User: Fold these one by one.
Assistant:
Number 1:
Amino acid sequence: MKSSTDCKSKTLAVVGGEPVRTSMLPYGQQWIDEDDIAAVVEVLRGNWLTTGPAVERFEAALAKRVGAKYAVAVSNGTAALHAMMHAIDVGPGDHVVVPTMTFAATASAVRYCRGTPIFADVESDTLLVDPEDFERKLTKSVKAIVAVDFAGQPCDYNALRSIAERHDVALLTDGCHALGATYDGQPVGSIAKMTAFSFHPVKHITAGEGGAITTNDEALADCMRQFRNHCMNRDHHSRQSQATWEYDIAKLGFNYRLTDVQCALATNQLSKLDGWLTRRREIAAAYDEAFKKIPGIAPLRQKPNRENAFHLYIIRVIANECGIDRATAFERLRAEGIGVNVHYQPIHQLSLYANDESGQTANCPRAAAAYAEILTLPIFPKMTDDDVAEVIAAGRKAFGKQ
Ligand SMILES: *Cc1c(COP(=O)(O)O)cnc(C)c1O
């Protein structure tokens, strides 16, 4: 027998019906357990709060997990991107090609070094960088290309590697969406010359705030270790072991250190990554299955030979198939208690770039068209099966399919 709430629940919350959820489900969220807290407390009771053994332990664990020789922990993902640009010596006059469909930090890092970001377009159905447009945008001034493994799906690395080799530019990865993803069996973090990761609470593992760069190149790793510590040529460990107070600073560096407290949290989180990746993939599969029955909802296409880390689950709302546009879908789902979001407004459209050389040379029509249709649904390992069912129910309701 149907209760009155069943009837009432069919009315969209946006016009006064009962919402599917009473509390807002965010699009991403950390998962902290008692063992994470215990790991942090243990460091707090010890002698080292920063630049101590917990940092080295985290770096070793991360390098091992992604199959790289070195990891350098820094204060956040943006600092990791900045360190990579510093390490390849980006400076005034240098260009770095980045996809326009990514978080603004990918381009900011180039500007921090007084270089110029050049924006490349993405493929419509994956939002991964289009290798042909990368190549089209190469000039003599380009020093590096930055792959962004968008939403957690690795880019076409075979094509990108071959472009980087043919044109003698560095292939770097902004892997902030893709910890735990693989391409042809190779983990993100061991594919490009350097890969940046973020440990912000919405990412795969968290340190509160945190970041790291992985690489197989010892000289680059050393350079970035100095960069995070004012480019001092000796840190306190080597000054102690060499019984000297002296150091030199030849380049401008930053304080981008990550504390032992944060590294203890990140190391403990890393031990749970595999289970969390499985859970993210399960949730994505449940959404795929449910939404293929709703015309006008198009999840990003999955390409072969790669394992997606599903940092984000993004759909395109095809208005002329489902009858509502993205703005309406956003409004309806928010009213139902689903914390949908939009990732991202293409960087070349942001005021900072729109009127300068970066913006003027962008010409990225596919990213611009995608921006009108994309919608990010909640995905994070701590979501329960009920949470997943509510997202699906709200989706069916918002798109008129109950
Ligand atoms: C999160 C993120 C960053 C920045 O990381 P922070 O730790 O927030 O500084 C950079 N690039 C991409 C693609 C990201 O998703």
Number 2:
Amino acid sequence: MAIIVSFASAALAVAAAMLGPVAAQSTTASCTALKPSYSAPSIASGYTAAPVATGLFKPRGILFDTEGRILAVQQGKGIVGLTLNDAGGTCVSVKENKTVVENKDLNHGIALSPDGKTLYASSSEEVFSWIYDPSTGTVGDNKTLIKGMKNSDHVTRTLLLSQKMPGILLVSRGSADNIDEGVVDIKISRSQIKSFDLNQIGDKVYDFTNDGTIIGWGLRNAVGVAEDPTSGAIYSVENSSDDLYRLGKDIHNNNPGEKLNFHGYLNGTKTAEQGGNFGHPQCYAVWDVNDLPEHGNLTVGKQFAINITETVNDDFCQKERIAPRLTFQAHMAPLDIKFSADGKEAYVTFHGSW
Ligand SMILES: *[C@@H]1O[C@H](CO)[C@@H](O)[C@H](O)[C@H]1NC(C)=O
Ligand SMILES: *[C@@H]1O[C@H](CO)[C@@H](O)[C@H](O)[C@H]1NC(C)=O
Ligand SMILES: *[C@@H]1O[C@H](CO)[C@@H](O)[C@H](O)[C@H]1NC(C)=O
Ligand SMILES: *[C@@H]1O[C@H](CO)[C@@H](O)[C@H](O)[C@H]1NC(C)=O
Ligand SMILES: *[C@@H]1O[C@H](CO)[C@@H](O)[C@H](O)[C@H]1NC(C)=O
Ligand SMILES: *[C@@H]1O[C@H](CO)[C@@H](O)[C@H](O)[C@H]1NC(C)=O
């Protein structure tokens, strides 16, 4: 099992592979693994890690195509395809490096259809698709699928193509500000994850605001979105606000918590969470309860109000807004979530605080 991680600032990719109980080290002699140019991250026991590729420009979304090629979106540049020499374990290096799409507007989102023959990517404003040939790593002409997503501040548009429900594409659009007052109005389609049915698109171009179905709203910036491969459950990880006050007290060092949210299923079975409001900008998840003035019986993960009024208060936040399934320390900045193939584990990357 290997996990490829992209480091936007260091422009490097790293593979971590779990070793069996009797890990064979014999490949290390012939391995010409790259040495990290940065101080290497520490690795949990049972894992090893090594860089796979250098020379990337702001790599963001990454995936494997059906031939085992890495496709990586380089923010402000396009999509690169990397075929690999694989000598086992973490001894993986680039064999061939080829430009797949050259476009400076692409900035994060990437997805492949379950048959591996349609490639999707996003800019801040639009979602595109291409017919993709995995045997050559080349694309045909692009098609615009969704438009109308432009806003300031949070400009990435994470894409998740359901593997359970073919043709259903989820798109995550963040807020236009640290605290985006506008998004209390559901018709302002920022801070939302929406689903779009590509089976029905024909020659249309969907408009993000007027088309699609709301999977969740009140999401400040849900950059990571994933589907549990066994149940089809949809989860997101959400980067929450900075510089918050409650009742005039600065609470920003240890609140609010960052979030892992549950969004229900795409197969038509309804849950209370699906289409619900997750809080932004009125309600936030508790991390350090003792740091919150008038915390009453709040506990970690419960939603609290920052500006307490008769109508918008902790009670409202708990009854009318959906609490996270997991809460992380303030400012950990989760940016992606991936499931193992059996759906029994999820992996979350964290950017970490400023
Ligand atoms: C791919 O090749 C280009 C052109 O030689 C180079 O600038 C870039 O750094 C290479 N990228 C990777 C990931 O090897
Ligand atoms: C789509 O194709 C048009 C026409 O060739 C091109 O101008 C545009 O840059 C392409 N967009 C993307 C995202 O590749
Ligand atoms: C949708 O998926 C859930 C979880 O896997 C399952 O419990 C439910 O029965 C499914 N609904 C339909 C209509 O298939
Ligand atoms: C995450 O939130 C922090 C503020 O807590 C902000 O500085 C950072 O830019 C955000 N990153 C993303 C990707 O939303
Ligand atoms: C909370 O109150 C502050 C100070 O009056 C204001 O600047 C901010 O916009 C309010 N936030 C919300 C979500 O109402
Ligand atoms: C504490 O919880 C109880 C029971 O859920 C509720 O009735 C009460 O209003 C809560 N108190 C505060 C201060 O939130």
